[in-house]
Specification:
Shape: globular
Radius of gyration: 21 Å
Oligomer: single chain
CATH superfamily of the largest domain: P-loop containing nucleotide triphosphate hydrolases
Order of helices and strands: HHEHEHEHEHEHHEHEHEHEHEHEHEHEHE
CATH topology of the largest domain: Rossmann fold
Number of domains: 2
Number of helices: 16
Strand order of the largest sheet: 3-4-2-5-6-1-7
Length: 380
């Protein structure tokens, strides 16, 4: 199967080739034709499976097909949970739009940037990527009109529809026209959620691409049993012993992210933190430095990690376990992408062991547990 067989225009295919997309992923093969038909879609596929292109490509194609009757108003709304993901999707749209015969204006709006600065760029925007809070602010100033939205996309819908976003999302849904195409994409999703049923309004085409066995095998999963007081020294031991040049470390709170980053730097390890309390400029700088290899370690909370997309990330470390097994899968999925191998490491203190067994049971996979008791950590 090739991208040219999916019904995409030559101008889009040229950009696809330039972006070095060779063959479509399974989720793209199934989703693109269905979206082009105007049907609502519920897409579930593992992290790194090409979900963003699955909706960006057909949306751009639909604009090309309707170019003779286009009116310059907002037609497509893409809701995302984080600033980083908004920026990432905006970049993907820009890349695939490069050779369109008639340009499509797109924009990404999110918090951490001056509201007036974003308001000035919204005129004639046809595709808008937005975080819920900032979008509601723009609606309140009458800078955005959602009454003519034709396509609604929820990316990372598992996070978008959790309790942290429910009130904001409900407010936005009330402003959308009842008749629209709904597209939900996520790595994991509770399809019994009442809110999801309200969003979709109708029976969607469900597309679920299960993780291929070879993809799972590309991620080497290891766990280290450690006492709480030795967790920091063990982390530094692993970073130095394994000569980690690029590692993404997950923690459960903003406070831990900052404290751990400071401790790593004091021990000569170049590290930066990324979380919701950081300014947008600080988050962007940290992510750019990490992607370019200028910073070896990026310490992130789960929510801030949405949008961190690095094709050949070799290491992921769970300094603290996530509450949900689904989030564990999302975390380790940041490595072992694009057919490149990767290693996911979890540091397990005694009180974590029961929860870690639950995670393994949900995954259907037993992870090797190594006792760190004999490691020499006194100098770390």
């Amino acid at each position: 199967m090739t991208f040219s067989s999916l019904g995409l225009s030559e101008s889009i295919l040229k950009a696809v080739t330039e972006q070095q997309y060779t063959e479509p992923y399974p989720i793209q093969i199934q989703a693109i034709p269905v979206i082009l038909e105007g049907q609502s879609v519920l897409g579930i596929a593992q992290t790194g499976s090409g979900k963003t292109a699955s909706f960006v490509l057909p949306i751009l194609e639909l604009f090309q097909r309707k170019k003779s009757t286009r009116n310059l108003h907002l037609k497509v709304l893409i809701l995302v949970p984080t600033r980083e993901l908004a920026v990432q999707i905006g970049d993907v749209i820009a890349g695939f739009s490069k050779y369109l015969t008639i340009p499509v204006k797109h924009n990404a709006v999110f918090g951490g940037v001056t509201l007036n600065q974003q308001m000035m760029t919204l005129k004639n925007t046809e595709i808008l990527v937005a975080t819920p809070g900032r979008l509601l602010e723009l609606v309140s100033t009458q800078s955005v009109n959602l009454s003519k939205i034709e396509v609604l996309v929820l990316d990372e819908a598992d996070k978008m529809l959790d309790l942290n976003f429910q009130e904001e999302v409900n407010q936005l849904f009330a402003l959308l026209p009842a008749k629209r195409q709904n597209i939900l994409f996520s790595a994991t999703l509770d399809t019994e959620s009442k809110l999801i049923q309200e969003v979709l309004l109708c029976n969607p085409i469900r597309i679920e691409v299960e993780a291929e066995e070879k993809s799972t095998d590309l991620i080497k999963q290891t766990a280290y049993r450690v006492s709480p007081e030795k967790k920091g020294p063990l982390l530094r031991y692993l970073i130095k012993n394994k000569e980690m040049q690029q590692v993404l470390i997950f923690v459960s709170s903003v406070r831990t992210a900052d404290n751990l980053t400071d401790k790593l730097k004091k021990n000569g390890i170049e590290a930066m933190a990324i979380h919701s309390k950081k300014s947008q400029s600080a988050r962007t700088e940290a992510l750019n430095r990490f992607k370019k290899g200028k910073t070896n370690v990026l310490v992130a909370t789960d929510l801030a990690s949405r949008g961190i997309d690095i094709q050949f990330l070799p290491f992921v470390i769970n300094y603290e376990l996530p509450r949900s097994p689904k989030d564990y899968v999302h975390r380790i999925g940041r490595t072992g992408r694009a057919e490149a191998s990767g290693e996911a490491i979890s540091l397990i203190i005694p009180e974590d062991e029961h929860h870690f067994k639950t995670i393994q049971k949900k995954m259907g996979k037993i992870i090797q547990m190594i006792d760190s008791e004999g490691f020499v950590l006194s100098d770390l």
